[in-house]
Amino acid sequence: MTTQTATVDFSRFLSQPKTPRADQARGDDAALREVTREFEALFVKQMLDAMYNTLNTEEGLFYGGESEKIFRDMLNMEYAREMSHNGSFGLSDMMYDQLQQRSSAYEAMSDQELP
Which superkingdom (predicted)? Predict the structure, then answer.
């Protein structure tokens, strides 16, 4: 990539309107919602992992060894995703609202003309 091409690409970027199109904004909202849900799922998975680490499963008759550990990890992730997508905890909703407010405030500031 030459310097001239980079300059042309950058100037094209600068010439784009500052306000996003409505369909792009809806896509951004959907992406933000999905990211906050995934973050909540990871948080819940960490809680489930901590809970299962307190159990003494290695001395039981049906301890499955490494296979059970792998299965338990995947099962905890699926439990966490399901809990997050059902809205059981509400952490993703709070994060979404907070990030949405900050995004709106940032857009309002960027729309103002500089003196």
Answer: Bacteria
